[in-house]
Request: fold
Amino acid sequence: MHEGKCIGLHEKIDFDFSRKKTREVRVGSLIIGGNAPIVVQSMNNTDTRNVAASIRQIEELAEAGCELTRLAVPDLQAAEAFANIRKKSPLPIVADIHFDYRLALAAIEAGADKIRINPGNIGGEDRLSQVVKAAKERGVPIRVGVNSGSLDRKIIDKHGGVNAASMSESVLQATRQIEKYDFEDIVISIKASDPALTIAAYRLLADKTDYPLHLGVTEAGTMREGVIRSAVGIGTLLAEGIGDTLRVSLTADPVEEIRAAYAILKSLGLRARGALLVSCPTCGRTAVDLVKIAQEVEEALASVTEPIKVAVMGCAVNGPGEAREADVGIAGGKGEFIIFRRGEIIRKVPEQEAVTALMAVVDEVCRERELNK
Ligand code: SF4
Reply:
């Protein structure tokens, strides 16, 4: 364990939790683990055989701040397409392989920056050894991914069911299957769809290994439920210093996974990217349509990459206080808004012009920061 600093929106803040020390694993141009920033990743939901659509989605993900994406390689045709995608991709790519070792070999050959396998279902010892050997020759790391639904029967029986102990033992057993070929470029994941089980399993695992950990709550759900479940599962672990990379799994556009990932990381001050919006819950003092305005501001801020704190407040009771903390803020009055910049009132605008006027100030702040870089 080591003490660390986290990067907040404005300054370095000492945090009172420490990040667990893990080994560094290189994935293309990225480092996962050690002191490297927590890597944000996603998974394409395009058909890998459709090269153009896959590249388009990777570009959208990169634009949103994704640093690593994963593509399913379900057949040899997909493996061939993977090679073309890899050549054009702005991001390093993980090949997701199940059951067929030939696909793992083909993906490594096609330039995969990392492969994700479950050593237990790749087709036996001899085939696994071929995959590990090829990965080693090419310097391709392996994510050993075991989910609560794919545990070894004997281990489940030994621990009396699917629980943190059986999940942790299963994934460590799978890791040993690879280590015996003198291979240590390993990242581990051990996801469950239940956030509480995910937390318990990763806690146990973090005590037993120093390989970097890939966090996630699997099959987390749709935008609303899935973001909450992921924030609880992933956020709890991050706050305990566990985790080196993460994926928020959502039944939604993968770009939303990236937005959610940064929202979790920003909440803990672990990564600074894009705007942090604070808005009040409204009450009997609110005399403007704040819910609508906050939603419009959230949408408008989605394309901002500069770390900036923006406050949207219903009235002047808490408005100026929040606005002092925020880089830019608005506080509602009767059918109008006051715009603040670092606590200083700079303008008063009618309600219907508030979002446009606020965004103009946000752009101004971002431009000034660009010039000062
Ligand atoms: S900021 Fe004003 S409107 Fe918003 S909850 Fe507080 S008192 Fe109510």
